[in-house]
Specification:
Layout (H helix, E strand, L loop, with lengths): L2 E10 L7 E11 L4 E6 L5 H7 L8 E6 L2 E2 L7 H7 E4 L12 H11 L4 H14 L16 H13 L5 E5 L7 H18 L2 E5 L3 H7 L2 E6 L2 E6 L1 H4 L3 H6 L6 H11 L11 H11 L7 H8 L1
Helix pairs in contact: 3-4, 3-5, 4-5, 11-12
Length: 295
């Protein structure tokens, strides 16, 4: 297993009249190579929770284990951990600061103790992987477009070769095309590098499309941790904590109510396309491509 969280609680302003639980007795395991979506209403504790996973926040109670070792024990090397558990904050492009894109991406590996050559090699590989070729390396990061800045910032984390990649709303503020490219890139990293991914998102459609399992936070507590189709069956509970299910799933329920024999567990356009083809007896040799063309 990559990361194990045990009975983690974080209390802000403990012992004062302003005391409040940001995270309350949360336990879960991120398995190696998994892609997990983390969803919850604003203020549900998502951001506080993920900052414990590489030691940026210290729990009031409970702990986090990385490969079975308590990251909060005295003497634990948190700098090394942060190279293995990479955390990409929302709008990471605001953290770009170096003269060139290449230098910015090299900063993390150099801070880990790598030589200039090793850091440069890693940075170039990371930039190539996220689609910023050699023509970008000597440019100022502040000359890039919004989506390019976002990718450069993520490359800075990838250059440290993390085992676990945690992303807080990585597609926030991007146009639909940029959003799809960003999430496809993350999906490719997960598949090709067998990287464990934890994706924080407000988009039910995004987590339904990419995640193998979903974690749902409400008022600091973990209320669901299961496959997307299982989580999305709890329509009422999700709506009660300010969330929803994917629009395509609402549509499936409406079609079911109208008398169509459709699987109401569908949560993506491709699944909906396949179901509709089945209902009307339509055969398609390449349903995924046709469904993508309908988006």
């Amino acid at each position: 297993m990559s990361l194990e969280v045990k009975n983690l609680t974080h209390i802000y302003n403990k012992g004062t009249v302003m005391e409040s639980y940001a995270v309350k007795n949360v336990s879960f395991t991120l398995e190696d190579g998994s892609f997990v979506g983390l969803i919850g209403h604003t203020g549900s504790g998502k951001s506080t929770l993920i900052q414990h996973l590489n030691g940026l926040e210290t729990p009031t109670e409970g702990t986090v284990l990385f490969h079975g070792e308590d990251i909060f024990k005295p003497g634990y090397d948190l700098r090394r951990l942060r190279g293995k558990v990479g955390l990409v904050f929302q709008y990471p492009e605001y953290q770009l600061f170096e003269e060139t894109v290449l230098k910015d991406v090299m900063y993390g590996p150099i801070n880990m103790g790598l030589s200039e050559k090793e850091a440069g090699d890693r940075a170039k590989e990371a930039l190539a992987r996220i689609g910023l070729g050699e023509q970008y390396w000597e440019r100022s990061p502040f000359e890039l477009s919004g989506g390019e800045k976002r990718r450069a910032a993520i490359a800075g984390i990838l250059a440290m070769e993390p085992e676990v990649l945690i992303l807080d709303e990585p597609a926030a503020g991007l146009d639909p095309g940029g959003r799809r490219r960003m999430l496809d890139m993350i999906g490719s990293l997960h598949r090709e590098k067998h990287m464990t991914v934890l994706l924080v998102s407000h988009s039910m459609e995004d987590v339904a499309e990419y995640a193998d399992k979903l974690m749902v936070m409400d008022k600091g507590e973990l209320i669901f941790y299961a496959e997307p189709r299982e989580v999305f069956r709890h329509v009422r509970e999700l709506e009660n904590c300010g969330l929803s299910i994917p629009e395509i799933t609402y549509l499936a329920h409406d079609l079911k109510d109208a008398g169509f024999d459709i699987d109401t567990d569908i949560s993506t356009v491709n699944e909906a396309f396949a179901e509709i083809c089945k209902i009307f007896g339509i055969k398609s040799e390449n349903e995924e491509d046709q469904a993508d063309n309908c988006i």
